[in-house]
Amino acid sequence: MRSVSRKASRGRTPLGEPNPIDIHVGNRIRMRRNLLGWSQEKLGSLLGLTFQQIQKYEKGLNRVSASRLWDFSVVLETPISFFYEDMDKSVAQQSPRMFSNPDADYQLNEEMEAFNADPMQRKETLELVRAYYKIPNRQAARHLYELIVAMSKSPYLNSKDKTEKKEAF
Fold first, then answer.
1. What is the pLDDT of residues 95-107, one digit of tens each?
2. pTM: predicted TM-score of the whole model, two decimal places
């Protein structure tokens, strides 16, 4: 049985488990790989790794170094910030710094909150763009684009008064 009072080593939790931040980054690697429709084998071959190493990164069992994160970013064609998107505040508060200094008063800064609020950094946006470019009929895709742009400019649809929206349905 592991001791709770043991100091966390190499970024792991005091119980020796993978750090939740590493798990989050691994989940984002998996999500991006899946969005591209790639297998672990394909990603591994592009990075010079085995699929088992990719599995360990995706599960957070192996920590992603800065240079390896750069490689993932380049190969997966996404900014490094993507790997930290949608991180829960409770997860962000479990950095190795917090384990070594539990008295630290950690709060997410305004930049992190602004980043999470940016719709261009959201999973939904990436999936929408990927789906849009898969539409084989480019004329239909263009019409869909024009519809979305028109809806976004509609003062009626953008009204903050919820009663108006309810009346429309």
1. 777 766 655 544 4
2. 0.58
